[in-house]
Design brief:
alpha+beta, four-stranded antiparallel beta sheet, 227 residues, disordered C terminus, three-stranded antiparallel beta sheet, elongated, Immunoglobulin-like, 8 helices
Length: 227
């Protein structure tokens, strides 16, 4: 054995986590040392990205994704990958191969491009890419502990069924969707609600939309991402 061990990583599956405080997907990753030798430890960093260009989109999805990629006629230039998360984990000692589970947090912030993208889809699969880097600790031929860097050339690809993600989000949030406002705008919205004696913020948004939209336009355009 000489030099940093050559590793290989594969995405084996994606499944919803159970009994977590926030919605989380478990990414099952296979990790192996190509020559079958021992590994003492791996400090692993994984960047998860949505490979949006590897998927087709219907007209309704294109309309909902304008806020992410712009008008569909520009997508030949603007349709690009979206960084979803950066995950760090420690892999314990193994020989030859092992399997690890990475927790991928699922947000609900409609100002984050990855969240907007996922909310816009109704079915099908989401193509995802995983890029890995970090540090591997391994014994040399004399048994002394060595370290080596894992370069970003280690990658894996896979697919996330949209239904799995939607079922997970519905389990935690139901039909609610979160919209983040700064303090000043929230104060103005709350004051508007108080002046109009509206029962909820849902009613407040409905009232504002009715005033802003032509008669009948809102019912056609409104989707389940606006409550």
């Amino acid at each position: 054995m000489s030099g940093t061990p050559d590793l290989a990583l594969d995405l084996l599956g994606v499944e919803p986590a159970r009994f977590t405080a926030t919605p989380t997907l478990h990414l099952r990753v296979g990790l192996r040392r190509q020559d079958g030798g021992p590994v003492q430890c791996v400090l692993l960093t994984t960047v998860v990205s949505i490979a949006a260009a590897r998927r087709g989109y219907g007209e309704d999805e294109q309309e909902r994704l304008v806020g992410v990629f712009g008008a569909p006629e520009l997508w030949d230039r603007s349709l690009h990958g979206l960084t979803w998360a950066r995950i760090t984990d420690t892999v314990p000692a193994f020989r030859g191969a092992t399997e690890l589970t990475l927790g991928l947090p699922c947000g609900h912030d409609m100002q984050v491009a990855a969240d907007q993208y996922l909310h816009a889809l109704r079915d099908g699969d989401v193509p995802i890419d995983l890029s890995f880097s970090g540090t591997v600790f391994y014994p040399d031929e004399g048994g002394a502990l060595r370290t080596g860097q894992i370069s970003w050339r280690y990658e894996a690809t896979g697919r996330l069924p949209v239904g799995v993600w939607r079922d997970l989000m519905d389990r935690y949030y139901g039909s609610a969707r979160w919209l983040r406002l700064d303090e000043e705008r929230f104060g103005r919205l709350a004051a508007y609600r108080a002046r109009r004696a509206l029962a909820s913020f849902d009613d407040t948004v409905d009232d504002l939309l009715r005033a802003a939209e032509p008669a009948g336009a809102g019912e056609e355009k409104r989707g389940p991402w606006i409550r």
